[in-house]
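Entry for the shared binder. Reason: the reviewer on the internal report wants the predicted structure included alongside the sequence.
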Amino acid sequence: MTQYASIESNQAWLAYDFGYSMAVRYFGQELMDTLPTKVRGKNKGKVRGTIEWEKVVKGGWISNGLGGDSGPSGRVERRVGKVIEAKLVGEDGKVIKAWYADLLS
């Protein structure tokens, strides 16, 4: 029986310290300084948008679909506890920048 990998998707607002510090870790302070900020309310001066990421919870097989005559294709995910993808998303829902971990890391 095949053990499939479990990947968790999360998001955090950039206006809060956790989301902002995570975005700086993956995208750098220079990019964060160029993003628009809120102009009123309790979060005045804080960055608009969210950071979304995917994290491997349990290692296992990830299927890429059928491989034709050679059978199913895919790969084994072994990076348990690691963030494998992060996206900086604006308030309009458009991806500003994306980061992907190397398959060999």
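Summary line for the report: Residues 6-100 form one domain.
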